[in-house]
Amino acid sequence: MSIETNQTAVVTGSSVGVRAGVSSLRQPFSIARQRLVVGSILVGIVLVAFEGTVVSTAMPTVVSSLGGLYNYSWVFTAYLFASTITVPLWG
User: Fold this and answer.
1) Could you give the number of structural domains in the chain?
2) In a domain, 1, yes or no
3) 21: containing domain
4) How much is the pTM?
5) Is the predicted pLDDT of residue 21 greater than 90, yes or no?
6) Which 8-state DSSP code applies to residue 74?
7) Is the predicted pLDDT of residue 33 greater than 60, yes or no?
8) Band of the pLDDT at 44, cuts 50, 70, 90?
9) Which residues pair with 16 in a beta bridge?
10) Could you tell me if residue 2 is inside a domain?
11) CA max distance for the chain
């Protein structure tokens, strides 16, 4: 495999410009790679939907054990905060 680079230096006055031909190094994704990426994104979306279903099902039990409906917003806010922090850290 040979990599061809086309480097041209242009000197005019006090400016120097170097242009490298890297467009030949870029290759489009194959169909299999595109399907893998789209499939991974879809699996992530499905898992988030399942997680939301589990949390919404468990919320009445959690709120009743905490002592009242006025804690519902705090529990849900704590869940969203924890989810927002952990998803970027651990994926």
Assistant:
1) 1
2) no
3) 7-90
4) 0.50
5) no
6) H
7) yes
8) confident
9) 11
10) no
11) 78
Helix (H, G, I), strand (E, B) or coil at 29: coil
22 Cβ contact partners less than 8 Å away, ≥ 6 residues apart: 5
How many angstroms separate the CA atoms of 41 and 44, rounded? 5
**Residue 83 confidence (pLDDT):** 84
- Tokens, residue 51: 């997680």
**Residue 31 near residue 47 (C-beta atoms within 8 A):** no
Least confident window among 14-18, 36-40, 81-85: 14-18
Q: What are phi and psi of 39, to 5 degrees?
A: -60, -40
> What percent of the chain has pLDDT above 70?
71
The residue to which tokens 């410009």 are assigned? 17
The alpha carbon torsion through 66, 68, 73, 76 (nearest 10 deg) reads 40
pLDDT at position 49: 85
The dihedral region occupied by 67, where left means phi > 0, alpha psi between -120 and 50, and beta the remainder, is left
